[in-house]
Amino acid sequence: MLLLMVMAYNGTNLLDPFVGERTIIVIAFVGIGGISFAWLWFAFRCPECRDNIGKYVLMTADAGKWLRVLILINSCPYCKKKLMRKTVSDDR
Ligand SMILES: [Zn+2]
Question: How distant, in Å, are the alpha carbons of 1, 13, 30, 62, 69 from that of 16?
Protein backbone atom coordinates (compact mmCIF):
# COMPACT_ATOMS: atom_id res chain seq x y z
CA MET A 1 0.00 0.00 0.00
CA LEU A 2 2.74 2.43 0.96
CA LEU A 3 4.51 1.58 -2.28
CA LEU A 4 1.30 2.33 -4.21
CA MET A 5 0.99 5.69 -2.46
CA VAL A 6 4.63 6.57 -3.14
CA MET A 7 4.13 5.58 -6.78
CA ALA A 8 1.02 7.74 -7.01
CA TYR A 9 2.70 10.79 -5.48
CA ASN A 10 5.74 10.41 -7.70
CA GLY A 11 3.57 10.12 -10.78
CA THR A 12 4.93 6.73 -11.70
CA ASN A 13 2.14 4.39 -12.53
CA LEU A 14 3.30 0.86 -13.21
CA LEU A 15 -0.26 -0.43 -13.25
CA ASP A 16 -2.84 0.04 -15.96
CA PRO A 17 -2.22 3.46 -17.57
CA PHE A 18 -5.97 4.08 -17.52
CA VAL A 19 -6.02 3.88 -13.73
CA GLY A 20 -5.58 7.45 -12.51
CA GLU A 21 -3.39 8.58 -9.65
CA ARG A 22 -6.42 9.46 -7.53
CA THR A 23 -7.81 5.97 -7.98
CA ILE A 24 -4.57 4.52 -6.64
CA ILE A 25 -4.63 6.87 -3.63
CA VAL A 26 -8.25 5.92 -2.91
CA ILE A 27 -7.39 2.21 -3.21
CA ALA A 28 -4.41 2.75 -0.89
CA PHE A 29 -6.54 4.47 1.75
CA VAL A 30 -9.27 1.82 1.54
CA GLY A 31 -6.56 -0.81 1.91
CA ILE A 32 -5.11 0.92 4.97
CA GLY A 33 -8.62 1.14 6.46
CA GLY A 34 -9.19 -2.54 5.80
CA ILE A 35 -5.85 -3.51 7.33
CA SER A 36 -6.58 -1.37 10.42
CA PHE A 37 -9.99 -2.99 10.76
CA ALA A 38 -8.49 -6.47 10.42
CA TRP A 39 -5.84 -5.58 13.01
CA LEU A 40 -8.50 -4.41 15.50
CA TRP A 41 -10.47 -7.55 14.69
CA PHE A 42 -7.63 -10.00 15.36
CA ALA A 43 -5.20 -8.24 17.71
CA PHE A 44 -7.24 -8.13 20.92
CA ARG A 45 -7.63 -11.54 22.50
CA CYS A 46 -8.54 -12.56 26.03
CA PRO A 47 -5.46 -14.01 27.80
CA GLU A 48 -7.68 -16.54 29.59
CA CYS A 49 -10.15 -17.94 27.05
CA ARG A 50 -8.33 -16.68 23.91
CA ASP A 51 -11.63 -15.37 22.61
CA ASN A 52 -11.63 -12.40 20.32
CA ILE A 53 -12.37 -9.20 22.28
CA GLY A 54 -11.61 -6.94 19.28
CA LYS A 55 -14.26 -8.69 17.22
CA TYR A 56 -16.77 -8.38 20.08
CA VAL A 57 -16.14 -4.63 20.40
CA LEU A 58 -16.32 -4.03 16.64
CA MET A 59 -19.62 -5.86 16.44
CA THR A 60 -21.30 -4.35 19.50
CA ALA A 61 -20.01 -0.79 19.97
CA ASP A 62 -20.63 2.23 17.74
CA ALA A 63 -17.88 2.87 15.20
CA GLY A 64 -16.90 6.14 16.89
CA LYS A 65 -16.50 4.45 20.28
CA TRP A 66 -14.37 1.43 19.32
CA LEU A 67 -11.08 2.79 20.58
CA ARG A 68 -12.65 4.16 23.78
CA VAL A 69 -14.38 0.86 24.48
CA LEU A 70 -11.18 -1.10 23.78
CA ILE A 71 -9.26 1.15 26.17
CA LEU A 72 -11.89 1.13 28.92
CA ILE A 73 -13.00 -2.50 28.75
CA ASN A 74 -11.71 -4.22 31.90
CA SER A 75 -13.20 -7.69 31.81
CA CYS A 76 -13.55 -10.26 29.09
CA PRO A 77 -17.04 -10.14 27.53
CA TYR A 78 -16.94 -13.92 27.08
CA CYS A 79 -15.50 -15.44 30.25
CA LYS A 80 -15.96 -12.33 32.48
CA LYS A 81 -12.41 -12.66 33.80
CA LYS A 82 -10.67 -9.44 34.76
CA LEU A 83 -8.20 -8.38 32.09
CA MET A 84 -4.71 -7.64 33.36
CA ARG A 85 -4.03 -3.99 32.84
CA LYS A 86 -1.00 -1.96 33.80
CA THR A 87 -2.22 1.13 35.61
CA VAL A 88 -0.48 4.08 37.20
CA SER A 89 -1.14 2.67 40.68
CA ASP A 90 0.76 -0.54 39.77
CA ASP A 91 3.95 1.43 39.30
CA ARG A 92 4.04 2.75 42.87
ZN1 LIG B 1 -12.07 -14.42 28.18
Answer: 16, 7, 19, 38, 42
* Position 29, amino acid: F
The neighbourhood of ligand 1, an ion, using CB within 5 A, equals: 46, 48-49, 76, 78-79
Beta bridge partners of 52: 45
Please tell me the distance between residue 8's alpha carbon and the centre of ligand 1 in angstroms.
44
Question: Ligand 1 centre from 62 Cα, in Å?
Answer: 21
In the three-class reduction of DSSP (H, G, I as helix; E, B as strand; rest coil), residue 82 is classed as: strand
Instruction: List, for residues 46-81, the tens digit of each pLDDT value.
Output: 988 999 998 998 889 888 888 888 888 889 999 998
Residue 76: the pLDDT is 92
C-alpha gyration radius of the chain = 19
